[in-house]
Design a protein that fits this description.
This protein is of the alpha+beta class. It has 6 helices and 12 strands.
Length: about 260
């Protein structure tokens, strides 16, 4: 049964730990990558995944939420047996809490959601970029909003009376992107879905810097279509980079705002 896990950690200590482990690349600190390495070392690879972090501005303490197949006692036992001491200087295992998620949701059930995603698409073929004059190669990740703009205006929009940016919104594009990924499990109410946070972020993957792309938070409501598929989606996560702090679908009662954490 999927467990929702709460785990406090020390944000400044995470940065210091990352520096000692040489996890920064060319001056880039990727919190999600650092936590992926840290959690793998304490609990095992993929045990706390997907996850999401919350940190009040400039606060020393931060919070990590995650989904796991292991119950609270089993997570504590693994960490006690195998966690390196320097990792325990970052995370507060004593503060770990877990609760079982519902084994079954109801078809037609309406739920609010809060999700941080990296809304990108992987190109199936080379794509000319009218903005840079270059070609974006097959297999590259591209911001779903930017791809929509390129598809609507493959020759550029300078000579158009109305630019594509004026006819579509980033929030709408990302909402449809999310709806596609929940197809068969739940229907996203696109009227309620809104983009509440957006920035561009370069990530770290492996020994080098990874791609730069959108880092977005979406809030809204959805209706469960297939209870089994919906539960599986929650456990697996949504979209790419799920091992690095993206894709955790946090549900809440409909009609209520997300809780501050």
């Amino acid at each position: 049964m999927t467990q929702m896990v709460y785990l406090p950690f020390r944000y400044a200590a995470l940065g210091q730990w990352s520096g000692r482990r040489r996890l920064m690349r060319q001056g880039v600190f990727d919190e999600g990558y650092a936590l992926h390495i840290l959690l793998s070392g304490v609990f095992g690879k993929g045990v706390l995944q997907p996850f999401r972090t919350f940190r009040p501005s400039r606060a020393e303490e931060a919070t990590l939420y995650a989904y796991s197949d292991l119950e609270e006692g089993a997570l504590r036992a693994v960490s006690e047996a195998a966690a390196p001491p320097d990792c325990l200087e970052v995370i507060d295992v004593a503060g770990l809490r877990a609760k079982a998620m519902p084994a079954h949701f109801s078809a037609g059930q309406r739920l609010g959601f809060d999700i941080r995603v990296r809304p990108v698409r992987r190109l199936a073929r080379d794509l000319p970029d009218s903005q840079s004059g270059k070609v974006i190669r097959k297999g590259s990740e591209i911001d779903a909003f930017r791809l929509e703009l390129l598809r609507r205006s493959p020759d550029g929009s300078k000579d158009r009376e109305v630019a594509p940016e004026a006819t579509i919104s980033r929030s709408d594009v990302y909402g449809r992107w999310l709806a596609e990924r929940l197809t068969g499990a739940a229907e996203v109410d696109l009227r309620s879905c809104r983009l509440t946070s957006f920035r561009r972020r370069r990530v770290i993957r492996g020994e080098g810097r990874g791609p730069e792309g959108p880092d977005s938070v979406l809030h809204g409501e959805c209706v469960v279509e297939d209870p089994t598929a919906f539960a599986a989606t929650i456990a697996k996560g949504v979209g790419r980079h799920r091992a690095y702090g993206y894709g955790m679908l946090i549900v809440r009662p409909p009609g209520t705002p997300p809780q501050s954490r």
